Amino acid sequence: SAQKTTPSGFQTNEYADAQLQEIIKKMRERANVYKERLKDPVLSSPEGSPTASPKKPPPPPKEEKKDEKKEEKKEEAAEKPEEDHYCDMLCCKFKKRPLKKYLEYMKLPDTIDSYTDRRYVAWLMLVTIAYNWNCWFLPLRYVFPYQTPSNTIYWFAIDAMCDICYLCDLMIFQPRVRFIRGGDIISDRVETKKYYHNSVKFRLDLISMLPFEVLCFFFGFNPAFRINRILKHNTFFEFNDRLEAIMEKAYIYRVIRTTGYLLFLLHLNACVYYWASDYEGIGSTRWVYDGEGNMYLRCYYWSVRSLITIGGLPEPDTLFEIVFQLLNYFMGVFVFSSLIGQMRDVIGAATAGQNYYRSCVDNTVSYMNTNSIPKLVQNRVRTWYEYTWYSQGMLDESELMEQMPTKMQLAIAIDVNFAIVNKVDLFKGCDTQMIYDMLLRLKSIVYLPGDFVCKKGEIGREMYIIKQGEVQVLGGPDGTKVLVTLRAGAVFGEISLLAAGGGNRRTANVVAHGFANLFILDKKTLNEILVHYPDSEKLLMKKAKVLLKQKGKPPPGPPPTQPRGLASLLVKKQETPKLFKAMLGGKGREGLAKLLQMKRQQDIKVKPQKTDRAETETKAKEEEKTPVQPAAKEEEKVPVEPAASSAPPAQKEEPNEDTKPAVMQRSTSKESLIITMTPSPRAGEGEILKVEIKEKENK
Fold it and tell me: Which segments show compositional bias classed as Basic and acidic residues (predicted)?
């Protein structure tokens, strides 16, 4: 270690001296922290408080020990089968879930939430398939000769499977569905069963399950006896609602469903046309089906051309054919116009957001063209619209949030933005509810590449939190040097937000580097929130003081090296303050000499005035003592006026160009020059310089 010798002869170790200085510095900082802690007890202690040692629980009685041992054995027995369930498949061996786990998952609960339980939606889909089987194939089997004695067994088997689905829905699922009564969700099994049995839906489901197929033993197997199965339509519409609620793009299913309605109406019309052709006689006239080709496809083709009114069909001959064709045209115009209108509404609802975005862009571009906005600004506006739309799917999120209750707005804001705000060091330790209230007040703004978020010298009234993207802090002599790059989760501008006096100016330029999405919190909003949270307000004020102190300190670094030897004589001295120069009106001693000369001239003017005043006072006293006639008094009063003006007023001396500047005389004088600096009573105006000249008192 390097050592140095002091003039007194003692040797000191530089390393030990530096360590001692560091220890003293830390002890002083610790003392300052404790002083602040004593002044304001809101701040938390810098040292963590020791945690209390856990108390030992009392020994359980013998009976409880036995029960615990039994439970442990059951848990171990339940865990063992999971470890043994492995499946060997060729060269791979993987673990599979035991059968009990599958059974537990498939076990139905006592009651079912129809809005959140996906298993209930899957069951509704199965019942809907059975319902569509009856709707599509019952008219087909009744009209077309597709059901024959040779394939009746297959039709009967599929019908039995559909009936089983209907029966399970009636006996197992529907009595378990929860319902709302007076704002309360009823989840009692007895109440849900009673509610279902008293509803109209139960009556329709019960009628749809009546076994009219018994009549087949008397009249033969006829699909018309199953026509009551179509009364299960409530389950079909319920499935549509539940499926649209869980789909991300529900409009796709709406388009498919509307197309299905159209095809089903064409299917029914084809069946009715074949029945009418069979009634008139197959191939009896030009209008009826001629019996060639696939009967269903030929009838379906005729139905499409007739209902959509394409034309080109053979003219009806008989009265029955004319009436049938008129009704067919009327139904086609009415039904298909409604379906086409519904299809238009579905597609319009699917593209409503896109249409709104296009209309906003078109209106903005039209406004800019009307006011002759430069093309550069127009391109930046279009870029902002495109990025905002494609990044968040809408132009203003607040419009969507305003339609929801406050609690739902808070829940969405917590899920989306709480993770970002919670990382901010400034708000750590504050009340969680205060942060929740602040989340609802944050405003999201998108900045384009190169946009100035804030400029140097501006009055700061808000704080910025980076949600997405990056910003750069610029500095240097020309303001283009990148000092630091801030990324998502960073905060800047908090000094302006927490400054007590206000009017704090920005110290640097902040520019968006790429597209940046920022949260903005202004000072007024924060003050409105902190009114309800005084503890958090005190904590933020303390943190603001610490930030202001850190801002005022110079950045840590090595101390400046002072020149040694003759180089110290050539160091440039500090320049005289500008305010001091302005008060003196010159440089160096010349300004002081002028100031003293003006003081002497003022004293010369004042002395004759004082002597004249003294003479007039003495004369007035003498006149009071000796009575004088009025004429004499007037004569004496006349010369008084010129006496006061006997001394001519001092004229201002104008400096000539040839005259040399005044030089400070090295002689003693009775005047003393006093220069003082006092703080200004107004915040932000700095200090006031005062220069006074006083005469020395004679001892």
Answer: 61-78, 602-639, 651-660, 684-699
